[in-house]
Amino acid sequence: MFLIAVVSVVQGMNRYMTDKFAGTILGVNTFRLRQFPDVQLGNVTDSTWRVWRRRPRVTYEDAQAVMRGVTIPVSAAWESSTRAALTAGRRQAKDVAVTAATELYFEIRSLGLERGRAFTAQEVQAGVPVLVLGHELAEKLFESQDPIGREVRIFDLPYRVIVLSRSRAICSGCRSTNSRWRPRRPP
Amino acid sequence: MVDALAMKAHSQLEMREAMSQAEAVMRSRRHLRPREPNDFALETADEVLDFWAKISRVLFVALRAWWRSRWSWAAS
């Protein structure tokens, strides 16, 4: 009886790891092109890190070339992340992970949207500054008020909240003075 | 610059095919010779799942051994 329970628990954990954990982190049937691996398992030596850091970064031109060169039908999205302070009126959330992304990011990462809508391709193309706000952040910035349609400032630039998600802040049309994080238009 | 370009295929097989096409494009753009390693990463959930598979195997064996030791102790 106990052995059956153990098998069930291990199988349940396997299902969770496959469908939820690995699927959410990297996506199911999904691969990512990066400068170096985002998920590192096991020991990564200092010398390996140094080699990785010296690699050229992935550019928009690289991403465009790959999207043109892949003939298999795929959904593609690019992303770029930074940490920033989010301000709404007098309230502020500091050191928040903010991701700039294109419209298919949500589908690829299987990110749940609680309320509202995701970006459209037109908004991404036009660089419309819209923001998907995580539930906890919304509570911190707006307390009991409805955040959808309200303004949040990132790097002192205004973004309109269009949807609440279970995860962090994700924006379209992002731009900043930080040269690492300026993905206004999709490749 | 982009941190990552994510591509999702309909199946594992198509993902592998798309990955090798992406690898070929990137190697060509970076002018890498056949013996040179990639200077970029193409990552999938496989590494995470392989790692988890090892953990779950160890976990299962450990729990089974623990259950057997308890059972033999109770029987004696």
Can you walk me through this structure?
Chain A is α+β, with helices and mostly antiparallel strands and 187 residues long. Chain A has three domains: 1-28, no CATH class; 31-74, no CATH class; 78-172, no CATH class. In chain A, 33% of the residues lie in helices and 30% in strands. Chain A has six helices and eight strands; from the N terminus they run H-E-H-H-E-E-H-E-H-E-H-E-E-E. Chain A has helices at 2-25, 46-54, 60-69, 105-108, 121-126, 135-142; strands at 30-34, 75-88, 91-101, 113-116, 130-134, 151-154, 157-165, 169-172. In chain A, a hairpin with a 2-residue loop joins strand 6 and strand 7 (157-165). Chain B is mostly helical and 76 residues long. Chain B folds into two domains: 1-44, no CATH class; 45-76. Helix content of chain B is 63%, strand content 11%. Chain B contains two helices and two strands. Chain B is elongated. The model of chain B has no long low-confidence stretch (mean pLDDT 87). Classes of the chains: A alpha+beta (187), B mainly alpha (76). At the A-B interface, helix 1, strand 1, helix 3, strand 2 and helix 4 of A face strand 1, helix 1, strand 2 and helix 2 of B. Strand 1 (30-34) of chain A pairs antiparallel with strand 1 (4-8) of chain B, so a sheet runs across the interface.
Keywords:
heterodimer; A: about 190 residues; alpha+beta; six-stranded mixed barrel; about 30% strand; globular; disordered C terminus; B: about 80 residues; mainly alpha; 2 domains; 2 helices; about 65% helix; elongated
Per-chain topology:
The complex is a heterodimer of chains A (187) and B (76).
Chain A: H1 2-25, E1 30-34, H2 46-54, H3 60-69, E2 75-88, E3 91-101, H4 105-108, E4 113-116, H5 121-126, E5 130-134, H6 135-142, E6 151-154, E7 157-165, E8 169-172
Parallel strand pairs in A: 3-8, 5-7
Antiparallel strand pairs in A: 2-3, 2-6, 4-7, 5-8, 6-7
Chain B: E1 4-8, H1 12-29, E2 41-43, H2 46-75
